[in-house]
């Protein structure tokens, strides 16, 4: 069977890499892909938002399974277009993707179905939002309603920061239309984890928990990014907590959507805070996380293509439980100087030929390959994943590889996993 992966980042490289291990798959295409992906799959120059051309390609090339990586095409309805043409595609429909594409919809849905989350208030007026912030307890959280590439959530420490953030989102439109509405939310204390699950709308299969590192600099300082590294599994979700997440968060979400007439098929990603009162939802995403995929999928023993095909045909119950390698995986993101702000591209990368360790793999997030030379082509450039029996050993593998790779201005966090072993509350 031929597969098509849509997207161009580290998550998509991981999906291509994992699908290529499937006994069901004999060829993988990626649209548009990147330099690293081009070494293991056939990259085609079609943009992820060009649904009709992508569907034409899938039909013409007899693609048996299409997998959507990023959230934007899902939110815009790529699955609906493929389904209309009887093409097999893994991911939620436009209506189902609202769980991520509108934070306001998501929070109001959680309130309706009693899914544990932080108290919140929604505003369409910047002046009203600023006025409300005079009465809140700090720190607080301000969120843009729409998609903002993982950067639309800001923790504010005082009224001055809150006012400036609301001004940026609602008046300066730093996230465009995503900032038409903002949400002011109470700050939750605890350990933040990501739990992804795969569902066909009836059955839910939960994956191992991981911990992302959103801030740009060591010690969780600096601006929010798309993610600077992750590790999996975490010790913050022992079996009883995972059961709690499944029973009180994931299952009510899928069942609640079904009551609203929405069959959710694909990945549902719960960004959670494990608090002293139990797990609470920070946000839902409608796709695999990035860089969470780079540490969760390498540990999965099951055939990913088989799982995805079972989701498409709503037969996930027949696949059995997921099984996992008894290892830890850790990923360190190497980024361009200036990320998540302005950054240069086209910077030469050296040392990538050293990536031959079976327990260390380099997933490309933003690279191109021209004239036998690797070049940077994005803010997040590479995700260096190490895998071993413990977090310390996995991180050692990853950082050893990071030290071999060079490009001018390369930045990365040196403290991935630093919260491991710390208390939840």
Compact overview of the structure:
With 425 residues, this protein is α+β, with helices and mostly antiparallel strands. The chain has helices at residues 10-19, 51-60, 71-76, 78-84, 98-101, 103-112, 126-132, 159-171, 239-259, 293-296, 304-312, 391-404, and strands at residues 2-7, 27-32, 42-43, 63-68, 89-90, 120-123, 140-144, 153-156, 182-186, 191-199, 204-212, 215-217, 221-224, 229-232, 266-275, 278-285, 328-335, 348-349, 360-364, 367-370, 373-376, 380-388.
User: What structural category characterises the helix and strand content?
Assistant: alpha+beta
What's the CATH architecture name of the largest domain?
A: 2-Layer Sandwich
Helix content: 25-40%
Distance between the termini: 48 Å
The CATH class of the largest domain, by name, is Alpha Beta
Uncertain parts:
none
- Our count of domains comes out at 4
Main β-sheet, spatial strand arrangement: 16-15-10-11-14-17-22-19
Main sheet summary:
8 strands, antiparallel
Mean pLDDT equals 95
CATH topology of the largest domain: D-amino Acid Aminotransferase, Chain A, domain 1
Number of helices, counting only DSSP H or I runs of 4 residues or more: 12
In terms of quaternary structure, the protein is single chain
* Rg measurement, Å: 21 Å
Proportion of beta-strand residues:
25-35%
